[in-house]
Write a structure and sequence with these properties.
single chain; alpha/beta; 14 helices; binds guanosine-5'-diphosphate; binds 6-O-phosphoryl inosine monophosphate; binds magnesium ion
Length: about 450
């Protein structure tokens, strides 16, 4: 039975947290498979806001098994804080499981992330400065510290020394930083290990057992396809693979365990951090989208860059992830904007036309978007719960997206609240049946 992957179809912040929370109701296990606390996933339930950075977005269902897979990089300071905050809000976190093989973000990773950005100056990537890139670099260089290493102070000490050795020169400016003192690091991280120990396990086996028993496993992606280390707008990307294929590696399952891939896309586009963004609106309309969509970063609080929906990039994401369905969020934000535009191709200043996402970095940087115009819609759609409640123009907008992508739009977001969604077509029937079964 189903393994369902949830991926960001754009540059992150598409509403993965909200959709994961919704689908998690039917799932037995929710597992994060890549990224770290560069992610910020928001869930608004009964007016209460939750922002998750490491803990999977299924944790609000009491006792639900929620796993942090081997592919995630974990800052234990952030994780223990997140756990504390949830406990404080009386959320049951007993279902949290942490892969013993996940890598750990160390204080020197955070320092090196910031130092690297400062060194790049104007060319900076605009990272979240959470140590993500340096932690994944150490993993690839086989100098990483893993969660299981936190459980043995002797091993931990040796591994930290080995990992820091080749970084001596880069870390020289931090020589007197108490956070980087070897003894302090070993003590602090061993304490984290001790606190997290009850949650540490083999999370791949949790997935196999659930799938073998015909249960549903949700693989919760972080970031988005266009931030993928291999397929995104390199070097303005993150240091992991947010695409669906990475769910296999980052959770420890095989490709045949995946049955569905849901791509989450906003009804427009946003990006936080530097890098090319062909359909960006650097005018008043961009500001309007930012204000109305509350487009400030969940993790860093930075304003997000906003623009029209880019169907060239979205088609690329559909293919890269073999998406089976789309969830389109934040349709409500487009209300009152007329006409609406969607980018259908790029044009290079020298005339070449690109219907497909170009592989060449300088083309992506200079590409001009070409738009198709669609009629806008009016009014507050936040209370719409059925497809037919939406204005005809809003339905046409969604139909145009589905047509261009060749896959159905199965879920539409009409507001930040958990219940502010529309299940499209027959999915609505399924959702109603589920809610009837719940209230029976
Ligand atoms: P994630 O990183 O993909 O989980 O997305 P974020 O949580 O970083 O950003 C999405 C933001 O949009 C959050 O503030 C959500 O509460 C909000 N949001 C999600 N879906 C909708 C929607 O359909 N309409 C509106 N107005 N806001 C939404
Ligand atoms: P969620 O899961 C949006 C961006 C950063 C930067 C680039 C590299 O909430 O969608 P990093 O710290 O990963 O080395 O930064 O990636 N970025 C995100 N943008 N949403 C995210 O996560 C992001 N995580 C990283 O802004 O451009
Ligand atoms: Mg986010």
């Amino acid at each position: 039975m189903p393994g369902i992957v949830i991926v960001g179809a754009q540059w992150g912040d598409e509403g993965k947290g909200k959709v994961t929370d919704l689908l998690a109701e039917q799932a037995d296990l929710v597992i994060r498979f890549q990224g770290g606390n560069n992610a910020g996933h928001t869930i608004i339930r009964d007016g209460e806001t939750f922002k998750f950075h490491l803990i999977p977005s299924g944790i609000l269902y009491p006792g639900k098994t929620c796993a942090i897979g081997n592919g995630v990089v974990i800052d234990p300071a952030v994780l223990t804080r997140e756990l504390e905050e949830l406990r404080h809000r009386r959320i049951d976190v007993s279902g949290l499981r942490i892969s013993a093989n996940a890598h750990v973000i160390m204080p020197y990773h955070v320092k090196l992330d910031t130092a690297g950005e400062l060194k790049l100056g104007k060319l900076e990537i605009g990272t979240t400065r959470r140590g993500i890139g340096p932690a994944y670099s150490d993993k690839a260089a086989r100098l990483g510290i893993r969660v299981q290493d936190l459980l043995d102070p002797k091993i931990l000490r040796k591994k930290i020394m080995t990992a820091m050795e080749p970084k001596q020169q880069m870390l020289r400016p931090f020589a007197k930083d108490p956070e980087l003192d070897l003894h302090t690091m070993v003590e602090t991280y061993a304490t984290y290990g001790h606190r997290l120990e009850p949650h540490i396990t083999d999370t791949a086996k949790l997935c196999w057992d659930a799938l073998d028993a015909d249960r549903t496993v949700l693989f919760e992606g972080a970031q988005g396809t266009m931030l993928d280390l291999d397929h995104g707008t390199y070097p303005f990307v993150t240091s992991s693979n947010p695409v669906a294929g990475a769910a296999c590696i980052g959770a420890g399952v095989g490709p045949r365990d995946i049955d569905e891939v849901w791509g989450i896309a906003k009804a427009y586009t946003t990006r936080v951090g530097a890098g090319p963004f062909p359909s960006e609106l650097e005018d008043g309309l961009g500001d309007t989208l930012r204000e109305r969509g509350g487009e400030m970063g969940t993790t860093t609080g930075r304003p997000r860059r906003c623009g029209w929906l880019d169907l060239v990039a979205l088609r690329y994401a559909v293919r890269l992830n073999t998406m089976t369905a789309l969830a389109v969020t934040k349709l409500d934000v487009l209300s009152g904007i007329d006409p609406l535009r969607v980018c259908v191709r790029y044009r290079h200043p020298e005339g070449a036309v690109f219907d497909e996402f170009p592989y060449h970095q300088s083309i992506i940087h200079t590409a001009e978007p070409e738009y198709e115009e669609l009629p806008g819609f009016e009014g507050d759609i936040g209370d719409c719960r059925r497809e037919e409640d939406l204005p005809a123009e809003a339905r046409d907008y969604l139909a145009a997206i589905a047509d261009h992508m060749g896959i159905p739009v199965r879920l539409v977001g009409v507001g930040p609240g958990r219940d502010q969604v529309i299940w499209m077509g027959s999915d609505r029937q399924a959702a109603l049946l589920r809610s009837e079964a719940r209230s029976a």
